[in-house]
Structures are given as structure tokens and as C-alpha cells.
Amino acid sequence: MSKITRVYTKTGDDGTTGLIGGSRVKKYDVRLEAYGTVDELNSHIGLIIASGVDDNSKKVLQFIQNKLFVIGSQLATDDSAAEFKKRYPCKEEDIKLLENEMDTMFETLPKLDNFILPGGSVSSAQTQIARTICRRAERRIIELSEKTKIENNLIKFINRLSDYLFVLGRKIAFDQKAPENLWIPDENRG
User: Fold this and answer.
1) What gap in Å lies between CA 134 and CA 85, rounded to an integer?
2) Partner of 178 for a Cys bridge, out of 55, 113, 129, 173, CB 3.0 to 4.6 A?
3) What is the span of the domain harbouring residue 61?
4) Is pLDDT above 90 for 134?
5) Considering its fold, how many domains does the chain have in total?
6) For the domain that residue 31 is a member of, what is the CATH number?
7) Cβ burial 44-61 (10 Å sphere, 16+ → b, else e)
8) Cα(136)–Cα(143) distance, rounded to whole angstroms?
9) Is residue 163 part of a domain?
10) Which parts of 58-109 are beta strand (E)?
11) For residues 139 and 133, what is the distance between their CA atoms, to the nearest angstrom?
12) Residue 118: predicted pLDDT
């Protein structure tokens, strides 16, 4: 692996960026919106880890960060570099890992009869922010999939990840003994 000797390249000064494969696109291209949002999500997951979570959640979140880096590279690859995309696929077992983690968390969480509002504690609220960014990433990826082939498991992983982040946010609040903020419709307020 080559060392990065400097961060700036000046090649994007014209408002374009290079994709893996060599083509250049405008910086507002849907492809950049997709992988830029995945990068934003990855940063927020780093903030969740830094806020202090249990060891298992930290391990899973670090796995997710690595997987998001791969997903970002997949989205940053133009159609001429299809072989690169095949080297790092999203696998069915990646999706299953998220599902298994959610099933395990559900075993200890109280039943949810209401919608909840983000909050509870700083780290559980941060997890809900990450969930909403994940949903935005999913929308951008779906939009991109109308223009280029996107691996189906990549889309499934992002979809499942938003569910995982919702459940993790609840678990963090539960572990910290922070109350969940229940949504109460106006007609039920006293």
C-alpha cells in the first residue's frame, strides 16, 4: 500500500472529482452525494464509538465503519472498474450480522408500544442522528442505482444498518438508564 504524502492534489479545483476507474464527474454528481453521505455516516459512527459504548457494540460499530469504507469505495468506482467492485462485495453474512445483533438487543429491551423521539442521552441521540444520515445515504444510493448497477446486498446492508442504529440507540439509552422520549399525539396531551 502506498503512503499518502500530501492531502491536496489540486485536481478538483475545476469542480470535478476523479472516480476509481479514472473518469471525472462534477462534485455535485449523485454518485458523490451517495458516497459523501456514507462518509458522513461513518464519521457519526466514529462519534458514537468515542462517546463510550459497551465492548460488543464498539466491535460491531468498528466492523460497520470498515464495511462503510468499502461501500464508499464501491460507490466511488465508475463502471469501467467493475473488477474492483467484485473484490470487496457486501455479503449476505454482513446483513445477517446486523440482524443477529438486533435480535440479541431485543432480548433485553422493553417492548415498544409508541414511536420514540430522539434523545434520552447524548450517545443515544447521536445514534439516532446516524440513523437519519443512514436513511439519507440509502435514498442517494437508490437514486444512483437508477443510473448505474449497484450491488443488491449493498442496498440491503444500508437498509438494515438504519434499523440496527435505531435499536442500538434504544439499547444505549436502556444501558444508561436514560428515559425514552415517547411521542405523544396532540390529542393525548393533557
Assistant:
1) 21
2) 173
3) 16-99+114-183
4) yes
5) 1
6) 1.20.1200.10
7) bbeebbeeebeeebeebb
8) 11
9) yes
10) none
11) 10
12) 78
**Would you say residue 183 has pLDDT above 60?**
yes
Q: How far is Cα 42 from Cα 127, in angstroms, rounded to an integer?
A: 12
d(CA 71, CA 53): 24
Q: What burial class does residue 88 get, using C-beta atoms within 10 Å of its C-beta: 0-12 exposed, 13-18 middle, 19+ buried?
A: middle
Assess contact for 21 and 135: CB atoms under 8 A: no
In a domain, 24, yes or no: yes
The residue assigned the cell 467493475 is 82
Residue 93: exposure state from Cβ atoms within 10 A (0-12, 13-18, ≥19): exposed
Kindly state the cell numbers that stand for 160: 438494515
pTM of the predicted protein model = 0.85
What would the grid cell of residue 29 be? 454528481
On whether residue 109 sits in a domain, the answer given is: no
What's the number of CA atoms in the CB half-sphere (13 Å) around residue 54?
11
Region 102-129: what's the mean pLDDT?
87
pLDDT in tens, 51-69: 888 999 999 999 999 999 9
